[in-house]
Amino acid sequence: MTINCMIASEPSMPQSAAKKAPLIFDAKQLQHQTAIPPQFIWPDDEKPSADPPELDVPLIDLRGFLSGDPAAARRASDLVGEACRKHGFFLVVNHGVDEALVAAAHRKMDDFFLQPLPDKQRAARKLGEHCGYASSFTGRFSAKLPWKETLSFEYSAKSGEHHIVEDYFTNTLGQDFTHLGKVYQEYCSSMSRLSLGIMELLGMSLGVERCHFKEFFEANESIMRLNYYPPCQRPYETLGTGPHCDPTSLTILHQDSVGGLQVHVDGQWRSIAPNVDAFVVNIGDTFMALSNGRYNSCLHRAVVNSTTSRKSLAFFLCPDKNRVVRPPPQLVDAAFPRAYPDFDWADLLEFTQKHYRADMNTMTSFSTWINDRRVTHHV
Ligand SMILES: C=C1C[C@]23C[C@H]1CC[C@H]2[C@]1(C)CCC[C@@](C)(C(=O)O)[C@H]1[C@@H]3C(=O)O
Ligand SMILES: O=C(O)CCC(=O)C(=O)O
Ligand SMILES: [Fe+2]
């Protein structure tokens, strides 16, 4: 199996317009090989260890809150706040999302990812854009490549855009994929509804009006990402997804029963055990900014294994692209002065797609970048 390796100049930063033929990576072949291109081998200080300790993640039962019980809402909000002041991860159960829909969303991933590579590449992601199929980002980064394939697409809760997911699949992949589009359209709609409920709990936990963040995200333009992690014969030298904080606002993740999600807590990588009845929820950089830094976006990654492919469904809640991300005034005071500049999500998304590989320092780098750009444009 020939691989055209790209001799890249930059470490693992986004590539400028691809002047070189990118490394062509076919998971079906490489998943059986111990000879792995060096671009996939991570530095010693980032390699995963075997059997990390499990993180005891708060499990929040949403049944009472969703049925309108004020005491249950208060309890759930307190648990959310406690988790967000620690590591920013929590599990939700009795979340109201149909388990058959979740199962269908996982099953339909195989209909796309088990196709031959040329068929998948009909949906190939264009450089600088966030939607489409990416095979390990071989054309995007030159080192520390993630051992995964992804398919990302937009979901919009705006009126008049209720078929954007279905249309994406039909327009990109043809009528044979309309059934996938219908499943993911319904799945994303469920995720959006659940996200707005969690935004109520987050608002309550921060002591702002209960509907403040819910209204901010009512017309969300979110990103749905299907993560497909093929087996890897050197699982302790590679990573499925590298260490990062999500630049988005809220992530609702469903991991299958294989396991592989890890969170960095108190200087240690801890695994989050699979629980197919639960969604894993974490806040991202944009919500950290909306909370004026009172809640932290948390560092996490995904590891792979040598025997089984792993799948995860990640719904990334994002505001309307042109809503200004600014914390409510109640969250700005002498103890918590403004942590980040005003920005709109479109700018942060552009930054992660064209200028910076999201990691644990994205917001610091972005703040510098946006301030410099404002000065330059202002001059
Ligand atoms: C806005 C996004 C950029 C990424 C997908 C969503 C939210 C998470 C981001 C990401 C997963 C963080 C780690 C690096 C990244 C390049 C990846 O491994 O996929 C990020 C995504 C991206 O830029 O495509
Ligand atoms: O697949 C996982 O468990 C995590 C993926 C992730 O963190 C992401 O896509 O942002
Ligand atoms: Fe993530």
From TrEMBL:
Pathway(s) annotated for this protein in UniProt: Plant hormone biosynthesis; gibberellin biosynthesis; Hormone biosynthesis
Location of the Fe2OG dioxygenase domain: 220-319
Gene3D superfamilies recorded: B-lactam Antibiotic, Isopenicillin N Synthase, Chain
| Catalytic activity, as annotated | gibberellin A12 + 2 2-oxoglutarate + 3 O2 + H(+) = gibberellin A9 + 2 succinate + 3 CO2 + 2 H2O
Lipid biosynthesis is among the record's keywords? no
Mind telling me which PROSITE patterns this protein's record contains? FE2OG_OXY (PS51471)
Record bears the keyword RNA-binding: no
The entry assigns this protein to a family as follows: Belongs to the iron/ascorbate-dependent oxidoreductase family. GA20OX subfamily.
Protein name (database record): Fe2OG dioxygenase domain-containing protein
